[in-house]
Specification:
With 163 residues, this protein is mainly β. Strand 2 and strand 3 form a beta hairpin. A six-stranded antiparallel sheet has the order 1-2-3-10-5-8, with helices on both faces. Strands 7-6-9-4-11 form a five-stranded antiparallel sheet, with no helix packed on it. The chain is built from two helices and eleven strands; from the N terminus they run H-H-E-E-E-E-E-E-E-E-E-E-E. It has a single domain, classed as Sandwich (Jelly Rolls).
Length: 163
Amino acid sequence: MDEHQEGKNVSINAGETDEILKRVYTRFKEWNFTPPDIEPLVFDFGLNDFETTGEVEFWIANEVEAGYCGKFLFVFDRQSCPLHHHLDKLETFFLLFGRVKMVYDGAERMMGPGDTLKVERGLDHGFTGVGPALLLEVSQPSIIRDNYFKNHSIPYGGNYRSE
């Protein structure tokens, strides 16, 4: 299956995203940032608490055959992308706007505009907005099943087992 379609399958129902996306685009306008003209994916990671655990992703490219991915990741203030790791994917984050508290391999660090972080395969990472924040992820292809979440209540990814 196409990974962007798989992402749509596990994102929040489109009817629930209108107000969220209005808030995102308002912030982008304040930053004078023009996002790519693509359909964003709005994730609550299946926990139904978007304001606490969630993010909005703009997949610029996810070229599985060519071996690369680029996407923008947006979080609101105090919103987190949950702790997880990848077995196959190497990724680098570049913070464009705002600040995030990044947890990587058991250590916390604050990241601000211009900061980068290379995330090695198999090492846990996640981040929380300290105010709204926008990151650029450059990585190997994004494959939904290659997300191994520490919170086993998240109903997808490589460590999820349906009953």
